[in-house]
Amino acid sequence: MIIQTKAIVLSTLKFQDKSLVVKCLTKEVGVQTFFVRNAFSKGKSSAKIAYFQPLMLLDISFTFKDKGGMEYFKDIKVDKVYHSIYYDFVKNSIAIFIGEFLGMIVTEQQKDETFYEFIEAALLWFDLQDEVANFHLLLLMELTKYLGTYPDITTLDKTYFDWQEGEFTNISSASCFDAEGSYLLKRLVRLTFESDQKVFSARDRKLLLDQLIRYYEAHSSVFHKPKSLEILKEVFR
After folding, report:
1. pTM reported for the whole predicted model
2. CA–CA distance, 212 with 127 (Å, rounded to integer)
């Protein structure tokens, strides 16, 4: 069956000298992995590598065998062009982190148009903004809504956040963030993408990012700290 779909590049892995393994989130069939022969070769095919930057928005077609293995692109082109992500060091660092992050948590091969459209809209918004210091924090929090792990906001009046239970409590335990970290998380929950990006200091952002990573680790058996995490922390020192 030939599938025509939009796709977002999540990650790439070089194979031998000239080929790539590309993981994409597609609108029609969810996560799909592709093998790209001669991605680095000279000549007409050499332009292929430009398609596979982190979070690139593509329009692709491929023969879908639905056997769980890698597929091959039949046709590929850029769907929407970013204006700043690949030319701004801070945004590009965030993009690399988000691509790696999504590649770990989005694993199911199933259609979810609502989820795809949310990610696409968030990335297009991100591309057009000047102030983006909180974008990765907001996105990680919003993603928990789709993963079924969004914090219980009916308990926001309590002091500590229990990262195992996903709720706020007045009783501190080993699985709770301290009062400062819990307060920052409450503030993050109340923010939207349109909120003032300067509401957190660099220290606040580092603490929130560490807490969100811990929260994901507690609620996903396949998640581990992204390799790009330390680079992102350096960007927002």
Report:
1. 0.90
2. 23
State mean pLDDT over 87-96. Answer: 93
Q: Is the predicted pLDDT of residue 237 greater than 80, yes or no?
A: no
With a CB cutoff of 8 Å and minimum separation 6, the contacts of 220 are 104, 105, 147
Q: Quick one: tokens of 101?
A: 């992050």
Query: What DSSP string describes 145-202?
Result: HHHT---BGGGTTSSEEETTTTEEESS--TTB--HHHHHHHHHHHH--TTS-TTSS-H
More confident residue, 187 or 39: 187
Instruction: Kindly report the number of other CB atoms within 10 A of residue 130's CB atom.
Output: 7
For residues 25 and 203, give the distance between their C-alpha atoms in angstroms, rounded to a whole number.
32
Write phi, then psi, for 119 (nearest 5 degrees).
-60, -45
